[in-house]
Amino acid sequence: MIKKIVLVLILCLFAAAAWAQEPAAFHHLYVGVNGGWAYNTLYTSNNDAYYSFTEHRAGNGFSVSIPVRYQFVPWFGLQVEPTFIQKNYSVHRTGYYSPIYNEWTNSFVDFPILANLSAGIPRLPALRVFVNAGGWLGVWADSHIKGQGRLSNPNFASYVHSAKLEQYYQYDEKVEFDSRRDNRFDGGLIIGVGFQYSLKACTFNVECRYNYSLTDLQKNYMNEMVPKMNDTLVVQAGVAFNSAIFDIFKRGRK
Amino acid sequence: MMKDKRNVSKLTVLLFGIAVFLSSCRPVIHLDRPGDYDMAMGMFGKVNFFLEFKSFWSGMNHNYLYWDIDSTDWDRVYDTYWPKFEALGVMDTNDPGSAKAMGEAKGYIKEMTRNLSDGHLAITFWDGDTIQPGDERVKLRPDYNEHDLVFFNYLWSIPGEVSGKKYKNWFEDVIKPRLDPSSAEYFPTSGNSAADVKDGFNAATGHCLIGGGPDYILYFYFNEFSLSQHFFDGTSPYHLVINQFMTELTEDPHVKGVIFDLRGNTGGSIPDIGMILAPLIDKPLNIGEIRTKNGPGRLDYTPWAPFTIWPVDEKYRARNPNIPVVALVNEFSISCGELTPLAIKEMPNGHVMGKRTFGATGPRIGDDNPLLMSGGPFKGGYLVKQASFAAWATRGASGENYEGIGVAPDETLTFGEAEWAMFNDAANPRDLWFERAVEYIKSKQ
Q1: Digit-coded pLDDT (tens) for B158-193
Q2: For residues A203 and A118, is the Cβ–Cβ distance under 8 A?
Q3: Residue B195: CB partners within 8 Å, gap ≥ 6?
Q4: Residue A248: is it exposed, middle or buried by C-beta count within 10 angstroms (0-12/13-18/19+)?
Q5: Which residue of B78, B297, B310 is in closest CB contact with A181?
Q6: What does DSSP say about strands B165-167 and A166-174: parallel, antiparallel, or unpaired?
Q7: What is the rounded CA–CA span in Å between residue B121 and residue B391?
Q8: Do B269 and B226 contact (CB within 8 A), yes or no?
Q9: Cβ within 8 Å of residue B443, ≥6 positions away
Q10: CA B226 to CA B386: how far, in whole Å?
Q11: How far is residue B304's CA from residue A171's CA, in Å, rounded to a whole number?
Q12: A224 touches chain B (CB under 8 A)
């Protein structure tokens, strides 16, 4: 549902922007929407070897954000960008244990603060390359686990078939946060590179962004704790509007 | 244009600088497997006591299952004990002083694990000695009675003499006369003999009694859950007994009740629970929930999943549905010997009698399958050869914990001096618990 709403919103904004095609001018304030794909891997300090036949796999998710940027000069601005982002991963047992797995869908509400540095590209005055650099603070809002475990259980078809010892069970449910274990405070550093194309009332952008967590998903509750930290690559596109959009809407009403 | 090029160069430098900074921002923890800490040193005849400690502590830290309910602060254990092991130094195993040091180290391990709640926890040392904190804990119970060991340590079904004590055939001479002696049938495990007693433990054995006349009760004693193993082994002396019990249960319309005598039952194969109970239910029986670990953290667990026994096809069900099912248990009813009464308590026609069970309800996995579920048993180094404990945790249908506590009976029975005297009466030995079970079944007719 969220994906559909975001899609419709983006289409509307693009339509409005296309209607507003006039040469770009410098504006101070930009407000927009970004959306994209989030590819998350879990940093565990390379301890897979401790657990035989275990493989950590990256997870796919999505990210939606509302960037608000104040442009001081054409090449520098500051941006805050409330973001809903999924940082998913899974752990699979391999080989003899292969049907066993755990897949986490973790949702975060993050608040990045970014310095936006941009530079023009020769012979393409409307196109600029930019770098977003900064950090974020946020909250681990929700966690969901899906998986399969194995149990030698008394789950029989009949006692004469009791040689069937191995049984599997599945789960697919919300994870109740454990205040002893889970660190729901999220924070880290962001670096992103992208291109923006400016029109009179808006700029379109595509960006590849790397979110590097500095916080662990766990509180420091035990010695020899294997870290669990997210590394999230986000590929996103969006549009940001400046104050000229209001002029266009006023003109439209006339 | 030159200005744009300079800006791009600045951005490149900035990115490079950030990348270098980020690479140094994260913790690096490298775990060795418990058996890898000092294996090489042990093989060369030396023992490094600190590494032995580290190996064991770390294995428990990541593989042990009950940190969420245990009162032991394992980090504090580390802080307290590493200096003690460090002080023992590194010794040649042939050094005359090493035996004393190894003894001290063993004592420290015993102290460290004394209060861990896992009833299955067993730590085997280099010399073959094994400590089991649960065994010590059960002796501290107010209602503990060493007489209960009679169901546990001795081959009480074979007439003869074991370790200087004389026994009669309990089932033939005591249980059977309390049914209808003229028509009751007794099916013992043939082939058992005093020679089958090893270290005070019975070999796998089972005894089925089928009452006759008005006391047509099916009584089944077995000392461990290896039923399906022996059932499918036609050459096992135990096979006929199990077959007789299952046949009576599923085919004889006269059976008025079932008694599972689990006193001193040391547990075993979990599917056996389904084997004996599934014919007695007509809809899924949820006896509780289970979970295992899914990560190296002490509190990394899978969600709780239903622990269910499913009914068998109708043709395999008991001929008389809804007959009373009674379990006799005591503090030496262990593991499956506890999960079975836990299931029987959930049956509408089930009734558990006796004393609170041992408190080892988390299913185990073979020591040869370490790390199956990111938790469970591990092989250690030189000092601790093997640490065995549960790989799954169990809790009751309403979320109750039984680990280290045991399953309470529906009806508490005592086995004090008076009962013990009657039990050993040479002329007229009586088992009051069994008699109470028969009385209960009769009361439900």
Answers
A1: 555 545 555 566 777 778 888 877 777 777 775 555
A2: no
A3: none
A4: middle
A5: B297
A6: unpaired
A7: 11
A8: yes
A9: none
A10: 23
A11: 8
A12: yes
Measured in angstroms, the CA of A58 and the nearest CA of chain B are apart by 16
Tokens 């904190």 belong to which residue?
A: B133
Q: Tell me the torsion sign for CA atoms B232, B238, B242, B244.
A: positive
Instruction: In whole angstroms, give the CA distance from residue A128 to residue A117.
Output: 10
**DSSP for residue B268:** B
Chosen from B18, B287, B289 to mutate, greatest number of chain A CBs within 10 A: B18
Query: What digits encode the pLDDT tens for the residues A60-76?
Result: 999 999 999 999 999 99
Helix (H) or strand (E) run with residue A114 in it? strand A101-121
β-strands A185-198, A124-152 pairing: antiparallel
Contact: B8, A129; criterion CB under 8 Å: yes
Cβ pair A212:B270 closer than 8 A: no
Strand, helix or coil at B179?
A: coil
Spatial separation of the C-alpha atoms in residues B89 and B75, rounded to whole Å: 22
Query: What DSSP assignment string belongs to B10-68?
Result: HHHHHHHHHHHHHTTSS----PPPGGGSSHHHHHTTEEEHHHHHHHHHHHHHHH-S-TT
B29: tokens are 């923890």
A45: left (phi over 0), alpha (psi -120 to 50) or beta: left
* Residue in A with minimal Cα distance to B296: A226
**Amino acid residing at A172:** D
Least trusted range by pLDDT, from A125-139, A227-241, B144-158, B204-218: B144-158
